[in-house]
Amino acid sequence: LQVLERQVVGGEQAENKDLRGKQKRRKKYVDERRMQLAAVLQQADEDSSDWVLLNVYDSIQEEVRAKSKLLEKLQEKLRAAKTEIKDLQSEFELEKIDYLSTIRCLERDLMLFQQLLDQAQTLVRHDCNYSNLEKMKHESVWDEETSCWKIPEPVIQKTRLP
Question: What does the UniProt keyword field contain (predicted)?
Fold first, then answer.
């Protein structure tokens, strides 16, 4: 009876291992496909613009309601995007104002130091290398490690008459 039962329940190919493997692979493929479809449906719920196009409606009123809901959702997304844009623009405007005020402050400091330098230059001896500002600028080197300028040491050049 058990032999007959196996033959009836499993058919003639009940003992065929290749057929069982093929059925397992097919079942695995079906399960994977089901998971993919579930993911697509979940995505469609999140982005229902495609979902509306896939629906078949029984009446025009039902289609109008569905599309109205979609329109409301899209309008809400549009409002959110517009407020986000306004927030970003105001943030950038504040940063711009801050940068401009920093630039103005730095320009004022630069003008002060330039005027101080012009006044102090007249007090430097003419035989010192600091008397020529352009030559000093040319000889100065920016040091990356310390993030400061390396200015040449002051040297007094004495001229001797023969």
Answer: Coiled coil
pTM for the whole structure? 0.46
Which amino acid is located at 132 in the chain?
N
**In the chain, what is the greatest distance between 2 CA atoms, to the nearest angstrom?**
136
pLDDT in tens, 63-93: 888 889 989 999 999 999 999 999 999 999 9
| Four-CA torsion 90, 91, 93, 96, nearest 10 degrees | 180
The answer on pLDDT for 44 being more than 80 is no
Number of domains in the chain: 1
Report the half-sphere exposure of 61 (CA within 13 A, side-chain side): 0
Distance CA 135, CA 151 (A): 11
Domain that holds residue 30: 22-150
Tell me the H-state helices in the chain. Answer: 2-10, 17-46, 48-54, 60-121, 133-139
Say how far apart CA 117 and CA 135 lie, in whole Å.
Answer: 14
How many Å apart are CA 79 and CA 85, to the nearest integer?
10
Q: What is the DSSP string of 49-87?
A: HHHHHH---SSHHHHHHHHHHHHHHHHHHHHHHHHHHHH
